[in-house]
């Protein structure tokens, strides 16, 4: 490259277009000529951002992880040096410019360090879902031209060893937990030794060639339909998105702690975590792999976060546990709790309507009840609760409102570098996904009755899909608008609402277009003991619904078990049809009293239908809940509608026979 473009890593490389499908082609940045300060903020690269933060906050903790029962902390200065050491090792092992380092494991300091080191070394960081099969891992590693693969442990290593011979670009495998059993697999300790033995010259030479407008990260979509696409994200996409999020969250420079909440290794959100932390020098505490089995509360109690972000499943599990505990309370405690909840719900619903003023009841309940609840959860210092990655049911949000924990919904997609909209404590609601983040723009395309496709614009919009020009042009139009595929509307206060999904529209035999997700959410809110709801009716004369009950989950395989949760068992007992397993529920056909309770709930949902075509007429209970392990859910917990429809085709046909 010409000498005038050797001023990286914060330089802007020459570019002809704002999109690309090649990993070595930079793009034009979408920086407006005029605009607010955040819109025109000078671009910064990933290496430039980490160096800046390490210089300004050298002794501030960056990462906190637990080992042998003790919390260990890595400062920003140490973090920066570890990333550089790892990057030098990657270069020594043969990482080529614009080739990938794939990372397969749960959240950990090693995951974050590997991700950043790949970028420092001129490569591309690629996170792979831990739930991926060997073949799914092969698609990601082969498609991204991986030179290096970093795995967590023996379990993940076996997936890579099974496909190793088919990866022509692969040069090294690193395992960061346990002792490698294969001679040609490098341990994390040995990787760092390799890096420390290298001089800085090669790394500095690579850093000088980096530009903020080139690809540094690939995020593979969850692949609910077809093979996952590789979302190409530039340095500016990621750092600018993190800046916008921090502005909305009102994060303070050097804020003490933010908890990493991702036991399922949601890759897109995990990447966002990295850059939010670096942008404002906050510390990330790592939740362990057993977070959803109960250990997350322990992490929260020890970390005492000031802000907490959770995927919907985190909030759902927390809700289930709290309901179980509440069920054990005596009459006096239940009455006191009911009074306190009514005070908090009244206060927060008034806030949503713009009516301020706490009142003595809310103040008393906050002091006597909610303070203790938050202490028990480890959230007594928390000033903001956020749900992201998938829709959170309104009834769950309503419950947390009633215990004085208003959850702020966020919305985004991998193609928008993580987040596009978010609520905050000054403006939120039960149904909205919030307003566009600072510097980001939203429009509703081809609205009918105020509803249309949600489209996004800004510096956070991705570069393109790796190697797929057709899909790139479908996603980003000629004016730079990213088409989300979600149906929505914007109200007079600029709050955005999702009302459906374009590709998931059910088109009935009568020709009516019906978005299934809002109806499914309504059913879940009416039936809190139901885990998943699946609306059926494409090319049919009427709508039906498939239901799964909440059950225990195998702690090793993450597969749903037959045993119903205690709260579901109690509910069935209260109906006069006790059962401990789904099998018992279905053995002789669902009990008439259970069917009556389900139909009454469906009737309440039908009363809210906007037309007769949107009324549910039949239901069936499925024998097992949905899960990632059994294939009905993708890695981001979105339902694979084609998989469910095919798997339960017989049950569906019986409803229409």
UniProtKB/TrEMBL annotation:
Limits of the AMP-dependent synthetase/ligase domain: 51-466
Keyword Cytoplasm among record annotations: no
Cellular compartments per GO CC: endoplasmic reticulum; membrane
Keywords: Fatty acid metabolism, Ligase, Lipid metabolism
EC numbers: 6.2.1.3
Pfam families: AMP-binding, AMP-binding_C_3
Superkingdom classification of source: Eukaryota
Native source species: Tribolium castaneum
Example GO molecular function: long-chain fatty acid-CoA ligase activity
Region (Disordered): 1-26
Official protein name in the record: long-chain-fatty-acid--CoA ligase
PANTHER family, sorted: AMP-DEPENDENT SYNTHETASE_LIGASE DOMAIN-CONTAINING PROTEIN (PTHR43272:SF32), LONG-CHAIN-FATTY-ACID--COA LIGASE (PTHR43272)
């Amino acid at each position: 490259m010409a000498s005038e473009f050797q001023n990286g890593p914060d330089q802007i490389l020459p570019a002809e277009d704002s999109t690309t499908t090649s990993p070595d082609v930079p793009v034009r940045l979408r920086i407006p000529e005029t605009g607010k300060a955040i819109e025109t903020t000078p671009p910064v690269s990933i290496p430039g951002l980490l160096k800046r933060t390490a210089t300004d906050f050298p002794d501030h903790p960056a990462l906190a992880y637990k080992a042998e029962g003790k919390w260990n902390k890595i400062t920003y200065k140490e973090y920066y040096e570890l990333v550089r050491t790892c990057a030098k090792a990657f270069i020594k092992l043969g990482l080529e410019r614009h080739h990938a380092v794939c990372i397969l494991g749960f959240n950990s300091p090693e995951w974050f360090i590997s991700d950043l080191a790949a970028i420092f070394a001129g490569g591309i960081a690629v996170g792979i879902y831990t739930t991926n099969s060997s073949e799914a891992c092969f698609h990601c590693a082969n498609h991204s031209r991986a030179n290096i693969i970093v795995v967590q442990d023996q379990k993940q290593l076996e997936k890579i060893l099974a496909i190793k011979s088919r990866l022509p670009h692969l040069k090294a495998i690193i395992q960061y937990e346990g002792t490698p059993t294969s001679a040609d697999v490098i341990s994390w300790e040995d990787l760092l030794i390799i890096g420390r033995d290298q001089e800085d010259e090669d790394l500095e030479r690579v850093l000088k060639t980096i530009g903020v407008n080139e690809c540094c990260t690939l995020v593979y979509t969850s692949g609910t339909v077809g093979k996952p696409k590789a979302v190409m994200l530039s340095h500016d996409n990621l750092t600018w998105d993190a800046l916008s999020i921090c502005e909305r969250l009102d994060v303070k420079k050097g804020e003490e702690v933010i908890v990493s909440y991702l036991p399922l290794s949601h890759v897109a959100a995990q990447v966002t975590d990295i850059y939010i932390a670096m942008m404002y020098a906050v510390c990330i505490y790592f939740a362990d792999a057993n977070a959803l089995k109960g250990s997350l509360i322990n992490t929260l109690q020890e970390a005492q976060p000031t802000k907490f972000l959770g995927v919907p499943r985190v909030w759902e599990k927390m809700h289930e546990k709290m309901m179980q505990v509440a069920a054990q309370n005596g009459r006096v405690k239940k009455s006191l709790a009911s009074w306190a909840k009514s005070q908090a719900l009244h206060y927060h619903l008034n806030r949503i309507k713009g009516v301020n003023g706490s009142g003595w009841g809310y103040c008393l309940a906050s002091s006597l009840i909610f303070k203790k609840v938050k202490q028990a959860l480890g959230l007594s210092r928390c000033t903001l609760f956020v749900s992201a990655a998938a829709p959170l049911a309104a009834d769950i949000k309503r419950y947390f409102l009633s215990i004085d924990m208003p959850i702020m919904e966020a919305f985004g997609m991998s193609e928008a570098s993580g987040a596009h909209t978010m609520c905050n404590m000054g403006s939120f609601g039960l149904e909205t996904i919030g307003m566009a983040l600072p510097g980001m723009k939203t429009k509703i395309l081809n609205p009918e009755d105020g509803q249309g496709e949600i489209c996004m614009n800004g510096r956070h919009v991705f570069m393109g899909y790796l190697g797929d020009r057709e899909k790139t042009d479908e996603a980003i139009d000629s004016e730079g608008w990213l088409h989300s595929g979600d149906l929505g509307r914007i109200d007079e206060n600029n709050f955005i609402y999702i009302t459906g999904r374009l590709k998931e529209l059910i088109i009935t035999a009568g020709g009516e277009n019906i978005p299934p997700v809002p109806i499914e959410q309504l059913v879940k809110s009416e039936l809190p003991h139901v885990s998943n709801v699946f609306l059926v009716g494409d090319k049919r004369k009427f709508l039906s619904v498939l239901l799964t009950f909440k059950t225990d989950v195998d702690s090793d395989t993450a597969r749903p078990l037959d045993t119903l949760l205690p709260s579901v068992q109690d509910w069935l007992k209260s109906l006069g049809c006790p059962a401990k397993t789904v099998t018992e529920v279905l053995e002789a056909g669902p009990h008439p009293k259970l069917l009556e309770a389900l139909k009454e709930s469906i009737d309440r949902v039908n009363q809210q239908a906007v037309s007769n075509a949107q009324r549910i007429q039949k239901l069936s209970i499925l024998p097992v809940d949905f899960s990632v392990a059994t294939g009905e859910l993708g890695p981001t917990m979105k339902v694979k509608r084609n998989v469910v429809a095919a798997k339960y085709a017989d049950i569906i046909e019986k409803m229409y026979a």
